[in-house]
Amino acid sequence: MRLYRHQLRWEQLLFWRSRESAVFVFLFPLLLFTLLTAVYNGRIYGRPASWALLAGMLGYGAATTAFAGLALILVARRELGILKRIRSTPLPPATYLVAVLTSIMVVFALQAVSLFVLGKVLKSTPWPHNVVSLALALALGAAVFAALGLALTGFIRSLEGSSAIVNVIVLPMAFLSGSFGPTRHYPQALRAIGAVLPLKPLIDLINAIYLHGQQIWDRPRAVAILIAWGIFGMAVAIRKFRWEPREG
Known about the structure:
By secondary structure, the protein is an all-alpha fold. The protein is built from ten helices and two strands.
């Protein structure tokens, strides 16, 4: 436990000292929310547009932080030989990975709180009524995307191409899943693709809880789909995750 706490503190220091991580992973969803709420007016899903955009950014934040952020961190450390060296230290590899995962969860939790504060300041968006259900939904979504992020590292072969691969996945997924606004006017083919992506059930779950006052257990299908994606991600990660550099 002492090693875990030490590594967790170190992970937090590393994250916040990195300008790239702070901007791309933490601040980008907040900046995007600010821009979108300046453009969208009217109502979305029967609620003011800013409410729906806040819900969408919470889902997008889970994807950028727990999925993209985690994958980029681990690929960079793998290709720089840091992960390989970790295995030769007294720190158990499992403890190291748990500390990294916990650190990224802390970042996402702070990001979610910051989104609510920003929404309140800019657009007077309401605080969530069903706080426990929303917290559980966000924690589930972050855990699922963290598992998928771990899995993705096994398919990224170089440090130079990691950002491009992650962005090619995250941005279209967010667009097709409804993070940036409603998808009902999209062509049928695009809506069909969006429906099978892991971000779609998370956004549906957040919308149901935050916009319509439901509880997490009112959407068992969305929860089950997310859990299935998480199990799939962990299964792939167990097979594909590597500690040694793949370049060269």
